[in-house]
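Database export, one record per block. Field names are fixed; values are copied verbatim from the stored entry.
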Amino acid sequence: MRTELLEAVAQLITIRSFWLRVSGIQHNQHYYVSIGGKVSQKVCRCMTLEVTHCRGHFVVGHQWQIPEPELDKAYSEIRASDADFGRRMRELRPSPKDVEMLISHATHGTIVLELSDDDDFVPTICKNKE
C-alpha cells in the first residue's frame, strides 16, 4: 500500500474514532506467509492501532499491529467488488465507511471501527476506571 494512502487511512481513523488512534504506520514486524505449502517468515510494515477509550474488554493502551500484506489483500478484494472504493482510495479521499471496511476486512472482523461521519467530531481520550 502506498505510504500516502496508509497515512490518509491513519489520519481518518485518528480523527474520526472515539476509541482508537493510529500510533504508527512504520513499525516493522515478522509476518508468516504460506507459499506453495511452505511457511516463510517475512518482515513487513504494520499499522499499529491503540485503544484510547475503554470499549468492551479492550482496555486503554491495548494495541494491534495490522500487517501491510493484510491491508493490501483487503484493499484488492474490496476494490474488485466496489469500483468507487478503488477510485476514492486512489484519489487519497477514503470515506469513513471505506476505512471501516478496509480495517474490518484486514483483521477478519476483529476490529470494528465505528467511525464518526460528523465533520465536527472531536475524539475523547479517557482513562480506564480503577
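Remark 1: The helical segments are 3-16, 68-81, 83-90, 96-106.
Remark 2: The first strand starts at residue 20 and ends at 35.
End of record.
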